[in-house]
Amino acid sequence: PPALDQILQYTNVVANALREASIVTQTPFLNSISTLSLTIISMVQNVKLQRDRYLRIVEGIHQVLCALTSLCVDSEHIRSPKTLEEIAHYAGTLQKLHSCLRAQQELGTLKRLFKQSEITLQLDQCEKELNSIDVVIFELNFGVATADAAVKFEDEIERRHQEVLELISAKSFLSEDVSSLRRDSINLSSESFSLLPASPKLFCGRDSELNHVVKTLTADGEPARIAVLGPGGMGKTTLAMAALHHPTILEKYSIRYFISCESTPTCADLMLAVGSHLGLEPSRQPSNAILQHFKQFSGQE
Description:
By secondary structure, the chain is mostly helical. It has 2 domains: 2-186, no CATH class; 207-298, no CATH class. The chain contains 13 helices and no strands. It has helices at 2-25, 30-44, 51-74, 81-105, 109-114, 116-132, 153-169, 178-184, 207-218, 236-244, 247-252, 267-277, 286-298. Helix 2 runs parallel beside helix 4 (81-105). The longest helix is centred in the first third of the chain and has 25 residues, at 81-105. It is globular, with a radius of gyration of 20 Å.
């Protein structure tokens, strides 16, 4: 629906603004919240079922992101113990929603149809937890914690969005070059590690394959490209997760990413998915933007 496309676009803008503000102010948990929000946005863009449900969920995320961004750039209360406690709680709840969406993406289309009741139950729980967050402490003078029922949905979104952007533009410390802000964010990169799916609790019978993957990824020379092939249900994702969390991989690669490619049938789709996961703005040449992003973090510029 057009309303979902609009709120996804607005939430993407505010999530990026929150990330940049968190880098400057170094407020705990905000970097994780912004990165999780950007990842959730990219996932919701591809959902086919229950889009009205996701519209409500993302609209709620937009509300909180607007409030957090405003507090981050224009208030000292964001560092109060109570506020930080709620922010940490909210980050954990977003992580649960992210895990729920990722689990759905890993199911085939037919399995998703058969598991609709289970999926609905999981979403009910995530939505309930999101709604239970005490956003009253985030409330600003424009009343971000609650929406006026007398105002049309689109107008409320537009008003809240524009007020946050105006507040950001009035702050000189947020007008610095975006690339320098992203370079500074390496100091907060440990917050993003939690975005990786958890290491498999059970992993049996694939030790030789795991050792081969780890050895290939840590070998000197050209970057490794490994394809794990096989029918559904044989443990391809589990093998990938076990490799990402392997101690040898952790020692060599301090920053790792997991990007679902289920809805990326072409190379162009893959580049868009990677760029979206990294929080990059859409461009005609996403591969160049992705390379530039990693060069900044590696200190080559």
